[in-house]
Design brief:
alpha/beta, six-stranded mixed β-sheet, Rossmann fold, 154 residues, single chain
Amino acid sequence: MQTAIQILVDADSCPVKEEIYKVGIRHQVRMEIVCNSYMKVREHSLVKLTVVSADFDAADDYIVEKANADSIVITADILLADRALKNEAQVIAPNGTRFTKESIGTAVATRALMEDLRAGGEQHGGPPAFSAKDRSRFLSTLHEDIVRLKAKSV
């Protein structure tokens, strides 16, 4: 049985699309893969590809417009995560980190600080390499959030 739950994916640089398909199909949850240019997606009745314009933040704006309390947004973009949380969505980073209303302020502040340091010429390494542990944590977090949303809708 299909639920009202939806997964919205900020897909242009998402490394866990196959994991999203696997969990989404198992739970019979609609998945919308949102990107700025065409990409191949899993052919399945629960998977929809949405290609938005290449305008700055077009994919983010589309996702925020669709996000609600029955949505799980998958993104590494902290500013998109903040906007989606304001629409009551669940938000998960590809490494399995769950963004929450309690944690997003710190994440936004850290992002701004790092941006200021880079603008000042300081070089800092990027994020750690994506690992099998990150992939496993993501699968677990996505499964938990779907189960929680399903229980809420009963």
